[in-house]
Every structure is written in structure tokens, then in C-alpha cells.
Design goal:
This protein is mostly beta strands. It contains five helices and 31 strands. It has a 22-stranded antiparallel barrel. A five-stranded mixed beta sheet has the order 3-8-9-6-7. Strands 1-2 form a two-stranded antiparallel sheet.
């Protein structure tokens, strides 16, 4: 680890000297020296726009700019450097990826995009590598139970906020295309325009590759569209639609002539109406339809056999009222209703789902102190009802350069319907998994360019579900305690250099035996250096993971660095902006693997062009 730290620091110096040596002409376009503002607006905590400094929760925001500075083509790659989030990839590029937050199970993390729930109905899981970054404006990651606003979300929420047409620009377009090793071709772009009261946006992405080894080839196509109509000065109607399909191969290393061929398709439509009948009241009503299909075939030398065939669909409606009772008091109240249906090859019939929830939360400022109070009532066809309260407090320093916060919340995750209804192993008496969670933290800015953050968390989890070998069914029989600490240090300098270091230590134990639960990562470290001078931008991002693995083949506890460089070509301004870029994944060719069944690629090089008009 020491040697890789030396390599990282040496590379930062090298990149700085390289850019200064080769940059020529033009003004200094260095990134701003100020650090990210605590006044950034988030929506995940309360379901309405709220200043981040008024939220007593651990929320990380990954912006579109952040995504542009790393080699990321999908949501999973965009979030893998977020402290406290472990992104498990079941192979190299194109493979499935799911997220743990603060040591949670994958099924405890709710994933939404455009307020559309994306988790599978039968078994709550979203393949985050299947979500293109092209339509994404930002990703808000809420760490810890978010049930007081979202319902079933014991581990947290990943809320993907998509781009909107820019009302200040009648027409914009961007395109990006690259070619890399293993015949990897990636293309994506967006066209956006506004005319009068109408605005529209369409994005497209296409990735395909032969894969880094036999039977790891993949291809994925995504199309996204949004239409906006302003109805006077205080109302609007908005429709968003998304379609994505993919096909990927998954090798079985001990049997080179056998592999799995997986296909999936996801699409949704969401309609949104917003109005402000009074200066101090906002009303929102939305409806949604989401469908997902997946098929896995076992491929033999002489035949194919269907291993899995699954499909689900969801219909839902939500409403929200936001009242601005004063300059320092905002009250939100809303509801969600969803009906669904899923069908699995292992079942002889379809199964229906139904849940609804109502929530209310209040953000009240009293001088330098802000209080967060809220709660949600959920009713679920499979397990009955749940109530999830939340309370938090924030203290902001008089200078505005720091804040302290603390939160207590109760959360739950609904039992996976497949574990309830499975005709062989299911248990109709399963209860939701629950937790009482405590978090506290602080942030401080020094000298206008250095930011430090520290937070601690503990969750006492009850009624964890696992398969009981004796009863031959799923049971609520485990209890666990998740606790840990996160820290971040970031600096930005006038000459265009930004540095950030972060770490998370997570300890997950069985509360009955006090034994550490294996295969939940204990230590994660990230390091990033970004240097911009004139037309040149370099970024170097590293991730270190201790998986606390029970598998003897694991080779971890080492940094894996990705490098991205771009140069803006001297194109006349009327013709837009053109950049040449190159990316090296696993720059130092680190030998990293968690499990043999999830092989990882060695160094991987790509390069291409991007255009902005």
C-alpha cells in the first residue's frame, strides 16, 4: 500500500509538470479554487428541493461534472468512488453491478430514476451497470435508512436525477465516441432544445465489446427522452421516457465451452404535473409505468437451454404538497401508491404486489439550528404495515464554514416477494427487516479551499432474513449491528489542482455471537487528483478495498487506479467545443480479484472524441 501511495503522489506531480510543459495559448481555464458548497440543493432527504446544509443526513452528490472527470459509462462506474458505497461488479466492463451502502445487503438499497422505482419486484435489485450516464444530471446517494421518505430502504437510496432542457439555450447538442482494446466501441450523445413554452431532450448511448476474455462480450443500447411544457409562470407538465436493452456473456471458468448468455430490457414512462397556486405552496402529481424483462440461457457446444426467464411491470402514482410556512420553515406531505405483477420461470402463475405509503416531514430553522422531523406510514400486501420516524438536528457555525449534524431514524426493507411466495422455499409469514439507525457528523471549510468531513454511524438490524436449512424456507432469524466511520479531505488550488482523499471503515457483526460477518467490505479508501491548465485536463482516481473475504482466491487490499486525460482542440467558438480524450483503466495493472467467478480485466485503454455545441 505504501508503494502505491508513492506512485499516486508521484503521478500527481508528473501530471502537473506535463500539462505546464505542453499547454500553450489561451487564458487559464483552471477549475474554480473554491470547494463544493454546502448550499447545494438535494431532493432525496425530504422528496422536495432542500438545501444540503439543512439536511441532517449523510448524503453524497455525484454531479455531471464529477462523472465527466472519470472513465464512467454507467451509473455503477460513476458511483464506485463514493465513500461508504461498495459497488460489486460480477466481472469486467458490461457485467452486472449492485451497491451496498454502509454494510447493508444489496436488497436494502432502493434505486429510483425520475422517481420511478427500478428494483426488481420479486427480488429487490437493480443492475446499475445497465443505466447509462448520458441522461444523468446528478446522483444523490442517501446513506442509511431513508424509510421516513421513501418506504422500503433499510440501507439507503440511490436517487438518479435526469437532465432537463436548458431554458436559456434554444439548442444544444453533445456527442462522444471512443474506441478501445478488445474491439470496444462506445458512443453517446444528447440533443436538447427550447422553443417558446416547449422544451425537449433526447439522448442515446451504445456500448459494445468483444470482452477482455472469452465469453465476456457485451452490448447495450439506451434511449432517453423528455418533453416539457410550461403552463404559465407557475405550472408545467413534463413527460420522461426511457428504454434500454442489453446482451452480455458470462463465462464459467472451469468449463470454457460453456457460458451464460443474458439479455435484459427495461423501459418506463413517467408523467409529471407541477403547479404553484400560491407563492408559498407547490403541488406535484405524477404517474408512472415501468417494465423489466430478463432471460438467461445456458450455452453448450451443441445447444442452448433457458435457465431463467423473468418479467415484471409496475404502475404507480404519487403526489406531494410543499408548503413554505416561513423563510425558515418548510413542510412536505405526500403519498405513493404502486401495483405490480411479476412472473418467473420457476412459478406456475403470476404474482401481484401492492403497496402504498403516506409521509410528512418538516424542516424548521431556529437561528443557527435546523430541525428535521418526519415520518412515513406504509401498507404492504405481503407483510402488513410499518411506521418509520426520523429526527435530526443541524448546527451551522456563525461563519458559515462548518456544520454539525445528528440523526436518529427507524427504517425497514420489505421481504423480497420471491422469498414470500416461492412455491418450495417461500414463507408467507416473513416480516420486514428493520433497523434503528444513528448517525452524526460534521464538515468544516478552511482557508476557502480545504474541506474536511467526518461522520459515524450505527444501525441495529432486527429480523434479518436468511435461508434456514432445517426448516427449508426463509426465516427472520438473524440480528446484526452495522457501525463505522467515514472521513473526507478535499482541497482545491488556484493553479488548477484538486485533491481529495476519503475512507470508510465498516464493522458488521452478528449481535448474538459478536462475530464479524465476512464478505462485507470493512475498509474502503479513495484518492483522486484532478489537474486542469489551459486546454488540458488530467484526472487520476484510485480505489482500495478490503473485502473481509472468506474466499481463499481473493487478492485485494491494493489500489486500482483509473486515468483520464483530455485536451480541448483550438476550434473557433462558433463551431462549439471539441475534445480529444484517452482513458486507461487499471493504470498500474494491479492484480485484483474478489472471487474467481468474477474475473477482472488487466490494464484497459480507450480513446476518442467529444463534441459540445
Amino acid at each position: 500500500m505504501k508503494s502505491e501511495a508513492v506512485i499516486f503522489l508521484s503521478s500527481v506531480v508528473f501530471l502537473s509538470l506535463l500539462s505546464q510543459s505542453y499547454a500553450a495559448g489561451g487564458g487559464d481555464d483552471a477549475l474554480p479554487s473554491d470547494v463544493p458548497s454546502m448550499e447545494a440543493v438535494v431532493v432525496t432527504a425530504t422528496r422536495a428541493e432542500t438545501a444540503r446544509s439543512d439536511v441532517a443526513a449523510n448524503i453524497e452528490v455525484v454531479t455531471r461534472e464529477d462523472i465527466s472527470l472519470i472513465p464512467a459509462e454507467n451509473a455503477a462506474e460513476a458511483m464506485k468512488y463514493v465513500p461508504g458505497v461498495y459497488m460489486q461488479f460480477s466481472g469486467g466492463p458490461g457485467s452486472q453491478a449492485a451497491a451496498r451502502i454502509q454494510g447493508s445487503e444489496f436488497r436494502h438499497v432502493a434505486v429510483v430514476q425520475d422517481n420511478v422505482p427500478l428494483n426488481l419486484l420479486a427480488n429487490p435489485f437493480t443492475d446499475l451497470s445497465g443505466l447509462s450516464v448520458e441522461p444523468i444530471e446528478r446522483i444523490e446517494v442517501y446513506k442509511g435508512p431513508a424509510s421516513a421518505a421513501w418506504g422500503s430502504s433499510l440501507g439507503g437510496v440511490i436517487n438518479i436525477v435526469t437532465r432537463e432542457p436548458d431554458p436559456t439555450r434554444p439548442f444544444t447538442a453533445n456527442a462522444r465516441s471512443s474506441y478501445g482494446e478488445h474491439q470496444t466501441v462506445r458512443s453517446r450523445g444528447t440533443v436538447s432544445g427550447v422553443h417558446g413554452t416547449w422544451g425537449g431532450l433526447v439522448s442515446f448511448s451504445r456500448d459494445e465489446s468483444d470482452g477482455f476474455m472469452d465469453h465476456t462480450d457485451f452490448e447495450r443500447t439506451s434511449v432517453y427522452g423528455k418533453l416539457n411544457r410550461e403552463l404559465g409562470e407557475t405550472s408545467r407538465f413534463n413527460v420522461a421516457a426511457s428504454y434500454a436493452e442489453g446482451d452480455s456473456a458470462d463465462p464459467v471458468l472451469d468449463y470454457p465451452e460453456f457460458w451464460d448468455d443474458a439479455e435484459d430490457r427495461r423501459y418506463y414512462v413517467r408523467a409529471l404535473a407541477e403547479t404553484s397556486p400560491f407563492d408559498n405552496l407547490d403541488l406535484t402529481l405524477e404517474s408512472r409505468y415501468h417494465a423489466f424483462e430478463a432471460t438467461i440461457e445456458d450455452v453448450y457446444p451443441d445447444r442452448r437451454e433457458i435457465y431463467l426467464d423473468y418479467e415484471d411491470e409496475l404502475w404507480g402514482v404519487s403526489g406531494r404538497a410543499t408548503g413554505y410556512l416561513s423563510d425558515s420553515n418548510t413542510l412536505n406531505a405526500g403519498f405513493d401508491f404502486n401495483r405490480g405483477r411479476y412472473d418467473w420461470i420457476f412459478y406456475d402463475r403470476d404474482y401481484d404486489t401492492r403497496d402504498w405509503g403516506a409521509y410528512v416531514n418538516d424542516v424548521l430553522g431556529i437561528g443557527p439550528v435546523t430541525l428535521n422531523l418526519g415520518g412515513r406510514y406504509d401498507d404492504n400486501r405481503d407483510f402488513g404495515t410499518a411506521f418509520s420516524p426520523n429526527a435530526g438536528v443541524i448546527y451551522r457555525s456563525p461563519s458559515g464554514r462548518g456544520r454539525l449534524w445528528a440523526q436518529a431514524a427507524r427504517g425497514f426493507s420489505a421481504p423480497p416477494p420471491a422469498w414470500v411466495h416461492d412455491p418450495v422455499y417461500g414463507n408467507p409469514d416473513l416480516d420486514p427487516e428493520t433497523a434503528v439507525n444513528y448517525q452524526a457528523g460534521g464538515e468544516l471549510t478552511f482557508f476557502g479551499r480545504l474541506t474536511a468531513g467526518l461522520s459515524v454511524f450505527q444501525a441495529d438490524v432486527d429480523d434479518l432474513i436468511r435461508y434456514d436449512m432445517d426448516a427449508r424456507q426463509y426465516e427472520n432469524i438473524d440480528r446484526a449491528r452495522r457501525r463505522g466511520v467515514e472521513g473526507t479531505l478535499a482541497a482545491a488550488f488556484d493553479f488548477g489542482l484538486r485533491l481529495s482523499f476519503s475512507g470508510c471503515y465498516t464493522d458488521v457483526r452478528d449481535r448474538d455471537t459478536d462475530k464479524v460477518i465476512n464478505d462485507i467490505p470493512r475498509t474502503q479508501l479513495t484518492a483522486q487528483a484532478i489537474y486542469t491548465h489551459n486546454r488540458f485536463t488530467h484526472s487520476l482516481s484510485g480505489l482500495y478495498t478490503d473485502h473481509n473475504s472468506s474466499f481463499p482466491e481473493t487478492r485485494d487490499e491494493r489500489f486500482v487506479f483509473d486515468y483520464l486525460a483530455s485536451v480541448r482542440l483550438p476550434v473557433p467558438e462558433p463551431y462549439g467545443e471539441v475534445n480529444v480524450f484517452g482513458a486507461v483503466r487499471n493504470l498500474f495493472d494491479s492484480s485484483y480479484i474478489y472471487r474467481d467467478v468474477w474475473p477482472q480485466p488487466d490494464r484497459w485503454v480507450e480513446g476518442g472524441l467529444s463534441f459540445n455545441f
